[in-house]
Amino acid sequence: MHAPDLRTLTIVPPQGPLRGRVMPPGSKSITNRALLVAGLATGTSRLSGALKSDDTRYMAQALRAMGVNVDEPDDTTFVVTGDGRLRAPAAPLFLGNAGTATRFLTAAAALVEGAVVIDGDEHMRKRPIAPLVAALASLGVVVEAPSGCPPVTVAGRGAFPAGRVEIDGGLSSQYVSALLMAAACGEGPVEIALTGSEIGARGYIDLTLASMRAFGADVEQTDAATWRVRPTGYRASDLLIEPDASAATYLWAAEVLTGGAIDLGVAADAFTQPDARAYAHIAAFPHLPAVIDGAQMQDAVPTLAVLAAFNATPVRFTGIANLRVKECDRVAALAQGLCRIRPGLGTEEGDDLLVASDPTLAGQRLPAEIDSFADHRIAMSFALAGLRIAGITILDPACVGKTYPGYWRALASLGVRYEGEAP
Ligand SMILES: O=C(O)C1=C[C@@H](OP(=O)(O)O)[C@@H](O)[C@H](O)C1
Ligand SMILES: C=C(OP(=O)(O)O)C(=O)O
C-alpha cells in the first residue's frame, strides 16, 4: 500500500504512541560531498552508510559519465575509483532537482578538458546559479547560464584556476561549498572569500571542510569569511557516513507528536549536520519558542512548521527567505498546506512564516489534500500532521525519493497505516 508509485497517500492517525526503531538513511549532504571528492581522488574509496536516493544517484551517474568508476556493492555502499581526472561527458549531465549535485558539479566541471552541460528538471531550471557562474567566470573559467539558472555550460580546460574568488552565498551556501571542493584540484592555491550578507547555512560549509579534509585536502580559514585551499588534490579514503539529520527531524517530530519512543540508533548530539539543531526545539514541544530563526537549520523548517501547528502558542519562523528557492517555494507551500488543514493556520509575512498553532487540531478529522509541489520535505512534514489529524492526504508521495525513499515504509514499520491498507 505504501508503494511509492501511488499518486496520493492518506494517512490514518495511529491509535497510540509510535514506538520502535527506525534508523534514518545516510546523509544526503555528506554522501554527495564524499562521492565528488572520492571521484576526484586517485585510487579507490569505500563510502559506507551512504544514502541511495534520487539525489545521490544523479551525482553517481554524473561521475560515471565523466569516467569515474562507481560500484554499488550493497544498499548503503558506494565504491568509487578515480584517477584524479574528470573526462568530458558525451551528453549533458542531467541532475534532476539535486541542488548539491548541480552546484557542486558546476564548479568541478572546470576540471574537465572540454565542454560540460549541467542541467536539471523543470524545478532545477528555476533555482538560481548565477552567483556561482559569475564567481567561476571571475577566475577565468569559460562558463555560461543565460537564464541565471541551469542549464549551465562550462568549457573546462582541465584545471581549476588559482587565485582569489569572491562569492555571495546569500541565496545558497552550496555555491561556496562547490568552489571549496573544486579548489583543492587547483593549479595553485585558491582563496575563496564571502561577500554580501552572512550566509545562512554556515554548518554546511563545515560539512564541506570536513569532507575535504577526510580526503586529504589542506584548507584553512584565514578570517571569518575567507578560506585558503592548497592544490593538494584528493587522496582516496574510506568513509563511514552518518545518518541524515534532516530525515531524523521527521522521526523526532513523530515521537513527540504521538508521545512515543522512536529509537533512531543515533543520539541527537552525535550529528555534525546543521539540521540536528532542530532537536532542541522538537524536544521542547509543545512549548516551541515564539520565534525560531531557521537560518541555521533550513531543511528542518518544514518539520518544525508542521509541528508548530500543534504547539501551545504561535511560532514565527524568521531567516527563511532562501526557502523560496529550494525544491519549491517552501514558505508559500507551507502556508498553503497549513491553510488547507485550517484557514489561517499558516501566514506568510514578508519572508517570515507565522504558524497560528492550535493544540485542539489533534484528534480532529479535517480532510485536506496537501500539494507537495514535488518537494520531498513538504510531503514528509505534512505526513506528520496526518499522525494527529484524520483525513490528511499527501499528493505525489513518491517525491520523498529525492532523499528518503524508505520514508513511508519507515512510518509503516512504526505502526502507521495508510487509507485503503489492511490493518
Ligand atoms: O550543502 C548542502 O548539502 C545543502 C545546503 C543547503 O542548501 P543551500 O545552501 O542552498 O541553502 C540545504 O538546504 C541543502 O539541502 C543541502
Ligand atoms: C534544499 C534541499 O536540497 P538541494 O538544495 O540539495 O536540492 C533539501 O534537501 O531540502
From TrEMBL:
Query: Which source organism?
Result: Bosea vaviloviae
One GO BP annotation is: amino acid biosynthetic process
Cellular compartments annotated: Cytoplasm
The positions flagged as active site in the entry are D299 (proton acceptor)
Highest taxon of the source?
Bacteria
Listed A to Z, the keywords are: Amino-acid biosynthesis, Aromatic amino acid biosynthesis, Cytoplasm, Transferase
Specify the protein name.
3-phosphoshikimate 1-carboxyvinyltransferase
Q: Where are the transmembrane segments?
A: none
